[in-house]
Amino acid sequence: MNGYDVIVIGGGIAGISASISAARLGCKVALVHNRPVLGGNFSSEIKVHITGASGGGHMFARESGIVDEIVTEARFSSIFGRSVWLETAQDIVLLDMVKQEPGIELFLDTEAKEAIMEDSSRIRAIRVESEKGSFTLSAPIFIDCSGDGVIAYSAGAEYRMGREGKEEFGESLAPDKPDGYVLGSSLMFTTKELDHPVKFSPPGWAYRFEDKDLPYRSHSPRELNYWWIEYGGMLDTIKDNDRIKEELTKILFGVWDHIKNRGNHRAENFILDWIGQMVGKRESRRFIGDYILTQKDLEDGTLFPDRVAYGGWSIDLHPPAGIFDPGHPCEQYKLPDPYSIPFRSLYSENIENLMFAGRNISASHVALGSTRVQGTCGVMGQAAGTAAYLCKKYDLMPRDIYKNHIKELQQLLLREDCYIIGIKNEDPEDIARISKVSASSSRKLEIENFTTLIPLNSPIGESFMVTDSRIDDISLYFSSTREREIVLSLYKVNSLKDINLDDLIATSREKLKANFEGWIDFPVDRDVNPGYYLIKVDGSPDVYIGYNPRSFPGIQRIDLSSKFNTARGVYPLRLNPPSKPYGPENIINGISRPTCSAPNLWISEEGFPQSVDLDFPEPQRINTIYITFDTNLDTPEPFRNVPEPECVRDYAVYYKINGERIKLLEERGNYHRRRVHRFNEIECEGISIEVLSTNGDLCARIYEIRIYRF
């Protein structure tokens, strides 16, 4: 079969993201997947959570773009009207997302068998097999997202399998000498609690485990999936996959036998509700690109000039012996910041029309310990799919895109709601960038609400932005059972996550009466420069401070006891005079998520309706509007509760002409972060977006508006 612009091998999160991104930009895509359902490790066949940079503890770092669309629909499906996370219905959600794209032809239950080469450095086609027989698919560009890299391997792409030694890349987490070991595979299961006891008798071939055999491995029957049921790191995870699955099944039943029949696990009423029949792989082949990502790149947060994706999951390394290792089942090395991933790690060094995305990218074994998680795989997939479009547009190979069109690739990814560290929207076609922006109101920086009071046993910190040239008072919420003195110190810092306490601005002391609860005003009385400030409150026994576990853009809770100082949640805070960092100008500042430098969104005052207006310097012809809402990017994927209250639910878009405001469209029931509205071309002097309600929050929030004539 001919006529494709790109062929994607593998229908996991990376492959889905690559296919959808290429198709939306105008490519004809063949997506070849060897299973009956899409999703790979995320499918109902394996049931591994999507996670990524936010799961690594980084603030507001959750993946956006197509990964966000996938997670949002799995967490609240428009088809099923509820969360279908890791259920069989989730497979239908993924299938529907692919089928909504007319540019994708999907080949399920189809095995990619071999690459058919034009010459030693270029793939002409691939041979695949399904119930329809054996046939070929051809295209100028191929993206291998199959995990094991079946087509990349067949094509002769350079690859590695196993662990590099310390010396090769200077990686402290690598073994002393290189070896052939990899991260092991896992087999998942889920449980259900009934209202009566149920016995379990293990099959005779199951392993038998005592407590001493499962050190450092928590095994409550209420836990979802036991990732540490791991085996195969000392085998070939490709050739020995059946053997690994057989051993993992014996291990799984042995672990459940231990939970049910040995020790007091309070599992009498629990049953095995689902048992995986496919292993979840962590590692096999890693293909070599023009750059190999290493531990140092991740730890240093290297900002590559060709960066197209990012990660932030901890470097998560597992012992090759898996469950049979007497030590910890994993060692996680948290990274100080999210890191960038270069485009050069996503294409082959020796097969010129081959890209890859997922756990098979050009990275060392140690770096793979972070890049392999599915949220990161998805953003790499979207980058590769977008690059495939540019290959079509310019009739070039991926390496040529790196050399000649990397900025265009980066700007396209930003337009399609991807995040690239340190790069902002500079799209010359975006008419919103030349607009004058105004709003019905803008919120001041203030946190009034909290859910609990936590003990002030040790010093706490909180950073915030100041837009005024003076701070008169800072107010915090306390309770105290005894009379105590509270000491607050104010420091000037360089960003919201800076904890350098060298620049002391003021110290303020206030007494709390016994059995007090309420706001305490700390006089500061200082002229200041607008910027970033940090308060430190000394610990005090018998004192409690208000706490809200939901983070807020522009305010950063600081853990002064850890070298990784940022922490989720906020302490209630008031400033006098108020700071106002949530103005409508943020909508066109080019960054569509909070960073340690700014909140980067407009937030209105409480109450609806609220509106934001973009007025053009002269009439413009437009046909497309992109709107990016707030879905609280600080919540990791497995813990999202969709719809998020911050997200705008109901809104209307108006266009302005001859002093009139004419309704263009109205949307009800939205819960997605990114909405793209296409319409017949109109000429207008500006647009207005009126927010009618959110999914619970009392304020309107918008990160970005883009306006185009395509």
Task: Describe the protein's architecture and organization.
- This protein is α+β, with helices and mostly antiparallel strands and 710 residues long.
- It folds into four domains: 6-162 and 285-415, FAD/NAD(P)-binding domain (3-Layer(bba) Sandwich), CATH 3.50.50.60; 185-275, no CATH class; 431-442 and 582-708, Jelly Rolls (Sandwich); 452-576, Jelly Rolls (Sandwich).
- Helix content is 16%, strand content 32%.
- It has eleven helices and 36 strands.
- Strands 19, 31, 32, 33, 34, 35 and 36 form a seven-stranded antiparallel β-sheet that branches. The protein has a six-stranded antiparallel β-sheet with strand order 24-23-26-21-28-29, with no helix packed on it. The protein has a five-stranded parallel β-sheet with strand order 3-2-1-7-18.
- A hairpin with a 7-residue loop joins strand 28 and strand 29.
- The longest helix is centred in the middle third of the chain and has 21 residues, at 241-261.
